[in-house]
What we know:
By secondary structure, the chain is α/β, with parallel strands linked by helices.
Amino acid sequence: MTFQQPRVETSPKVSDEIRQTTCYMCACRCGINVHMKTNEDGKKEVAYIEGNRDHPVNKGVLCAKGSAGIMQVNAPSRLKAPLKRVGPRGSGEFEEISWDEALEIAAGWLEPIRQDDPSKLAFFTGRDQSQSFTGFWAQNFGTCNYAAHGGFCSVNMATAGIYTMGGAFWEFGQPDWDHTKLFMLFGVAEDHDSNPIKMGLGKIKARGARVIGVNPIRSGYNAIADDWVGITPGTDGLFILALVHELMKAGKIDLDYLSRYTNAPVLVNQDPNSPDKGLFLRDDHGTPLVINRKSGKLAPFDMHGVRPDLGGSFKMGDVTHVSVFQLMAQRYLKDKYAPEAVAERCGIPAKRIRAIAAELARVAFDEAFELDQEWTDFRGEKHDKMIGRPVAMHAMRGVSAHANGFQTCRALHVLQILLGTVEAPGGFRFKPRYPKPVEAHPAPHCRVTPNKPLDGPHLGFVHGPEHLALKSDGSPARIDKAFTWENPMSSHGLMHMVISNAHAGDPYKIDTLFMYMANMSWNSSMNTGGVIEMLTDKDADGDYKIPRIIYSDAYSSEMVAYADLILPDTTYLERYDCISMLDRPICEADGAADAIRWPVIEPDRDVRGFQTVLVQLANKMKLPGFTHEDGSAKWQDYADYIINHERKPGIGPLAGFRGPDGDKSGRGAPNPQQLDKYIKNGGFFVEHIPTEASYFKPWNMAYQDWAVGMGLYDSPQPYLFQLYVEPMRKFQLAAEGHGERQPPEHLRQRIKDTMDPLPIWYQTDQQGNEGFTVNALTQRPMAMYHSWGSQNAWLRQLHGHNPLYMPTKLMRQHDLADGDWARISSPHGEITVPVMEMAALNDNTVWTWNAIGKRKGTWGLQEDAPEATKGFLLNHLIHELMPAKGDGLRWANSDPITGQAAWFDLKVKIEKAGAPQDFTESQPTLASIKSPVGTGPKNLAWKVGK
């Protein structure tokens, strides 16, 4: 008998056409090939999504989220038309209206505000990836109240990085995957930048490089680490400074690197009676001074031929000045930073801390290597080699979202610098448009004038009390109290405080809250139940305390029900987007790159891209910046803006294909065919950095000149890494009574204690948490990024609901088994949820996936959907204010320096609530919301193509 193998088509035709664009399912911004088929009506439909192998970010790799993007454009939860509220807030009762009426209503609310007091508009956006544009819109409207989600996400990491070394992790830089031999992660979950990290981890592990994961939770990347450090939450800074102690004690730091490229040799005033105590000694031009080892005399740090002395000191009159390096040695060599002194608090044995420090030193110095590449530094000195230190680090929200997160992030950056690994081969590398000194960024602006634009950018970097956003009477200028004495260096604003401040009328009342893609009535807010009450609360006259709310989203999220006007957004495959060099570009360390999204399909609903709606609103109100002097519109929609807007001559949203012929990069006149060029090129543009400019970018003149040519700088911007951050000392001086601007009395001591110019660690403020001793954390799963990820039909199969993961010790202590229910309480609230044991977890920490739980009636989900029954949020346990201390004040649950939301300082108490059969739903259970799109079908199915 002869057996015939079946004939199988191994490469079936999956599409009629491929359209290339940029993914929006996480922060990676990977390139994707969207396979299209033509349906019976002749319309193109999405059949399949795969990675674009030519793309500089993902090189063809695509994760489950990216592939599942097809479900976002078919989700039953998509909003279908503009909506006007007709019932009470929170009822979900709306009527569909036309876009003409929606724009008329919005302009009718906004235009009187602009004429009277633009600050009565609070305009805040979520992960929109177009903040250079939304900020431009808000600035031309004239309000000072604008920011995005960074204030409750990553401001500690980003701001600490900018002030310390001119950039940080995420969009700012990446490890040198080709050369690193030891990679250390701190607090990294799996939702951000996942494809590049996965590809990089695969590359370095294939070479035999070691990975150390520092995280209370061993999941994702930490699960494949060679060494997992299950640290106690909030103690990363203490652990890092113990490593610094060991390295300095052993002399295992890069002294040559520190003297050349950092402010370690800069001289600091040590006179205890001087109003300049702790400030740098400067020349008449304001340049910090060092001692030149060659002459023994004072010299500007950037003088050609100078060799700064790390141990320098200088006496001017009766005032002694010593180097930053001496101050560091005096501090970090103290026994308080020794491994034995920190081990118990960190949950890491002293022996293990020493072993990690020794491994960092061994790899950085004993395995140092050279690249045979000449380069010239900013002092004119020529180098015939590039010295490599093959230790790289990466960190994320886990170390950032604590009330000591700013100083912890500073400590981590200083650790890298002491090893000489930043911008050295094998270490951490900046991505253009970084590195940039902090001075190259704007300071925040807050001067509001009726019917005029704001006097400058909303967000920026303060250099001292003179840059705080305060009114003439000393009160906060912004509704979120950013850039005030409460949080002076809040470079991303405080989105988590906007609703509570607006509700309280503190510091003043607003008229309209305008939000985009920010699910503030659910998973994006601390104190979820309280925020819902604030959004619906009325005054004695029966009027809402927040009078008007405009909201834009693509989906029927929890926030939709609490708005008065809904401006429905498109999905990411139905609109133009600009991932701009002015904002958060897709650059890699070896090249400047940006990208677009474009409408690969047309919407089948009456929706418009939010950015285009902003252009149309601006035109309707004739906002300056958007209109010519005669009142005519400069741009008709967002695509028109992307092509023709110039932030300054020759510099626009996109860096590629500029000039009339599309042959210019970085700088050049607008090109009418620019978007077509991007589409033809796969949706992206990349300009590679010359080989001689690849490393040591802050000091490498070849890079500096290349960056000027690309429009990243107007002139070369070489600078020193700031181990000692002088602006922080200026705030301390004010708290000590010096200067014209003085903090309020109740904040003086906190400013003196926390705003140390050298990294410190302090216990986060847990007063009021007596009896609540267990750490509680959240992190996003790899299959999610936006909160809308869990209503995606494919991704729901990976995370239908979330248990509370508990370590073996706590499971046994409370007589719990998998599937049992536990009552979790904090000083603020209580939840009852299912639990599951996890051995690879810090033994005093519990955690869960964030944003899985959904409110009934939202997202088009069935009432009995697992997300809406067993899914839950820890947000119910967290408050935007700290527990009362008894001093008559309620302090923000935020970092006192930047105002970042301290999500991960949550402490809880655990009690067994019952067996699996005792509960059917997680508690609290909120009433179902009526959805403007109704409920999706039980089974989601559709036919693609003919």
